[in-house]
Amino acid sequence: MPYNNLTLSSSNGDIVITVYLPNGVDAGANSPDNLYYYSSRFEHGSMIGNIQIRRPQSSSTSNDDDDAAQAPSPPQYHTLYGTNLWRIPHNSNWPESGVGLASEFGVGDEGDFCYYRCGWSQASDITNGVLGYKRARAGEAFLKVGVGALIKGTCPACDSTEDYKFNSPYMFAEPPQWKLTKLSKRGGGSSSGGANSIYGITLEHQAALRPEHGYKLQKQMVLVQDNVLEVTTTLTNLGTLPFSTVWYSHNFFSCDDRAVGPGYAVDMDLTLQNDRASDDHYIDQLYSEPGTWSWSTPLLEYGRIVAARAADVVFGSSDYEDGNTRNIRVEMDRTVDPGIRIKSEFVPQPNSQGAFVLEACRTRIQNTFRMNTPQENKFDMYAYNLYLERGTFSPEPQMLFHFAAGGTKSWTQ
């Protein structure tokens, strides 16, 4: 069905991006039936997918003088981060049913809080993207950052333990409301109306629960160049209590509706020693797979970890001066079978800032991150995971943020 959306288009037509809109931005789309995502896990303002990128046009070798024969063929596009492979048939109310750059405040795991030795930095008191959960009783409201006010105890997987279930749908205490502003012309200017094809938008949403808990979230998506999309997230703590939380983009990546398999690869802002890349014991020490044999399948049954090619992107690290240090590259050797899930968690690497380059159908797309908050020029990395299924090839660098009462952080991917 035609879910409520708009498109961002480059000036030369080389890239067209679909943004699926959240509740409240269109009076005709306030029914969940019209919304691509209306569940309780991912930020509702982060549904960016179906990215169309023009393929290079091959030159004609025909000697036919017929004008029709010489006319250029219609533009052909690769479709990245598509909607035809992941969780089909689509269910807007299911927590996993995100698209593309769908992001989450939280770690993508069960429980509402990590108290001690959490993540790469071994931090303490990290919330799983939820505020006021412990204090709330069953039937009372708590906040999920980027989602809104939810009702504790209403998810199908909820039980007497009262643990937060990140991947089970909670009922809303009230419908989340978002505000849309369209950036309708280059060089400045904005509008809340106008044409449907634009180069940037801002989405804003806020929620509060007593004086202690509240947040304001802004998502700005702008085609800053004809081939560069920037997504800036700005979060403000509106409550009187500080909190710390993790954020990541799931990156539901696929290309041209091809199942994940040979031709898919990722170069990550993680390093290995090139002269030890064929040492199985050394490779095993670079990552772990805690879900293996319970729900996850080992990565090496379908792919391999190798050293990235020396000519490929090096993510700005001085570690490469010795000529032996390379980025970690994961390449797929065979197509992932239906029902298979793979999750690899890489060991801490203090110089990583989460960058990666995805590759499929002879197309490469780079993703980098930067902090925009004054006096902060480096992310506090919480984890760097890789999640695979037949319908998604998902690098998941996770960042940790600390918010004082009234504090604001801003970052761009």
Low-confidence stretches: 59-68, 186-197
The secondary-structure element order is EEEHEEEEEEEEEEEEEEHEEEEEEEEEE
Query: Into which percent range does the helicity of residues fall?
Result: under 10%
The shape is: globular
Q: Approximately how much beta-strand content do the residues carry?
A: 35-45%
Main beta sheet strand tally, sense and closure: 6 strands, antiparallel
Number of continuous helical runs: 2
> What is the average per-residue confidence, as pLDDT, rounded to a whole number?
89
As a whole number of angstroms, the C-alpha radius of gyration is 22 Å
Write the topology of this structure:
Layout: E1 5-9, E2 15-20, E3 48-54, H1 67-70, E4 77-80, E5 103-105, E6 113-114, E7 126-127, E8 130-131, E9 141-144, E10 148-151, E11 178-183, E12 197-198, E13 200-209, E14 213-225, E15 228-237, E16 243-249, E17 265-273, H2 280-284, E18 287-288, E19 303-307, E20 325-332, E21 342-346, E22 356-360, E23 363-367, E24 370-371, E25 380-389, E26 392-403, E27 408-412
Parallel strand pairs: 1-12
Antiparallel strand pairs: 1-2, 2-3, 3-4, 5-16, 6-7, 8-9, 9-10, 11-13, 13-14, 14-15, 15-27, 16-26, 17-20, 17-22, 18-21, 19-20, 21-25, 22-23, 24-27, 25-26
